[in-house]
Specification:
The complex is a heterodimer of chains A (241) and B (110). Chain A is an alpha+beta fold. Chain B is mainly alpha-helical. Chain B is elongated, with a radius of gyration of 17 Å. Classes of the chains: A alpha+beta (241), B mainly alpha (110).
Chain lengths: 241, 110
Amino acid sequence: MAEINELIVNIWRGQEKGRLVEYRVPARPNQTVLDVVTEVQRRYEPSLAYRFACRVGVCGSCAMTVNGAPRWTCRTHVRKVAAGNRLTIEPLRNMPRIKDLACDMSTFFGKWQKAGGRFEGTLTRNDPPAAVDPVSAERRAANAAIECINCAVCYSACDVVTARPDYLGPAALNRAWTLVNDVRHAARRETFDRAAADGGCGACHTMGSCVQHCPVGISPTASIAGLKRMSLLRFLGRAPE
Amino acid sequence: MSERQLFALQRISALVLGPLVIIHLALILYAVRDGLTAAEIFSRTRGSLIWTAFYSVFVIAAAIHAPIGLRNVLSEWTPLPRRAIDWSMAAFAILLAALGLRAVIAVVGG
């Protein structure tokens, strides 16, 4: 970055209909894409709409499409993704655009519920904590998928979601897989049935865009493969209820 | 039929088709080594229970497998309504099975 003093940043303004607007922002060391968007809003374009909260890769609010790929912008360094000194920043794909870089995520979160993603416990505060074997196959499968931050990067990356709006998508199915493997979850069978229903795990084509783009290194593809395997075994009557 | 059942049927039919396709291709290479004539084919297939069973299973597996995959392609790449796709794919499955089994009967029958 030493030789680049200025970034040329094209940012989407508007809703479904809109246009890219060019801004020139000083290049700084260790600058993230979110820093750039914030600088544009604070200095040049106070009406620019975008989302963020934690700025440290925990909350999953700030995902945007950066130079064509979905990314968590707070943990994306400009020097790693800029084409020369150029950045193009657009909202995520596969969701309606509300304004500028903010999109309507209600369908995305709704699909979590549709996939049976709500945890239902069986214990009360008076019971001792559930004894979960940390090295059991089920717990390891759940642990591998549990760190999802709901950023919708995978949902934006998935071409099946684009082709089939009723597809639950990688995040919701990944969540369902963690619950299906969670011995404390009271509705494991129901969660599985929802995740394997029409528009569920069987619709995934294993293209792997979700794995490629997941910022926290989860493999939703592996989780969905687990659901598919379970679906097939249950069809053959070979899986435990 | 639910997509869950279709998914399972597509995978199971693929499992069946895998070895059958390999045997079928190997058979083609073997059968044409001295040229290919109707008489040669009939001498091998006429009245053969093994080839009747082999190609009947092949045809049924293909008739199950192909329409399910085509249904996915049509539902993702065309604006056709789901119901229209489902009915046309059911008809396609029947057509594949009928044409295939007719061919099996033609080569193994007297």
